[in-house]
């Protein structure tokens, strides 16, 4: 089979699945090894960079997905109902960042870091498909473990959680001090 046939098969797989497909599954489908398959997909990704093409292939944690280029959204909205935009409040962003950097993590651990209940925030993040249940901790009560989803990666434009910015320890300490000062001010009122 020639390379154009492989590209057509990969394109059909990614278009039809609609979600990300792991590299090893694509390789098995076209009966090539992962290295050869990855090279073909990377070539396709370059081809899709052409401004006259409205879709692209993105990589998410060693998986690939075909999706619409963001510059096409305004035209899609004219055709489809406007998608519901999820509002991420400061509380949701704070909870999401704790989960992203500490995953897998339980609600109790999140609450210990935040100092307040996180049930509502975690439930909203699960509803928005930014966070999901990863399983249960092997501890008394078997609490749920939470982590980020592929939707989180797509929403924040990263291929894996390894690409998240590194936290500066000095800044973290400053944030802690600011939070403690705010807490003391609230208690004094």
From TrEMBL:
Keywords, ordered alphabetically: Cell cycle, Cell division, Chromosome partition, Cytoplasm
Protein name: Segregation and condensation protein B
Keyword Transmembrane: no
Gene Ontology CC: one annotated term: cytoplasm
Role noted for this protein: Participates in chromosomal partition during cell division. May act via the formation of a condensin-like complex containing Smc and ScpA that pull DNA away from mid-cell into both cell halves.
Any single GO BP term: DNA replication
One Pfam entry name: SMC_ScpB
Location of the protein in the cell: Cytoplasm
Keyword presence, Cell division: yes
Assembly information from the UniProt record: Homodimer. Homodimerization may be required to stabilize the binding of ScpA to the Smc head domains. Component of a cohesin-like complex composed of ScpA, ScpB and the Smc homodimer, in which ScpA and ScpB bind to the head domain of Smc. The presence of the three proteins is required for the association of the complex with DNA.
InterPro entries: ScpB_csome_segregation, WH-like_DNA-bd_sf, WH_DNA-bd_sf
Highest taxon in the source lineage: Bacteria
UniProt xrefs under NCBIfam families: SMC-Scp complex subunit ScpB
Family label: Belongs to the ScpB family.
């Amino acid at each position: 089979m020639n390379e154009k046939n492989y590209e057509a098969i990969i394109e059909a797989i990614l278009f039809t699945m609609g979600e990300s497909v792991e590299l090893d599954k694509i390789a098995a489908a076209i009966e090539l090894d992962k290295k050869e398959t990855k090279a073909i997909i990377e070539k396709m990704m370059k081809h899709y960079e052409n401004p006259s093409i409205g879709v692209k292939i993105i990589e998410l944690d060693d998986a690939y997905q075909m999706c619409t280029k963001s510059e096409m959204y305004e035209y899609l909205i004219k055709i489809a109902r406007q998608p519901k935009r999820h509002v991420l409040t400061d509380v949701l962003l704070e909870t999401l960042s704790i989960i992203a950097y500490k995953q897998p993590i339980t609600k109790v651990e999140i609450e210990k870091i935040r100092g307040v209940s996180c049930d509502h925030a975690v439930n909203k993040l699960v509803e928005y498909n930014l966070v999901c249940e990863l399983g249960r901790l092997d501890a008394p009560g078997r609490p749920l473990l939470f982590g980020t989803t592929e939707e989180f990666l797509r929403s924040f434009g990263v291929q894996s959680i390894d690409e998240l910015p590194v936290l500066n320890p000095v800044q973290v300490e400053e944030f802690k001090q600011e939070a403690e000062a705010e807490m003391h001010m609230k208690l004094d009122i």
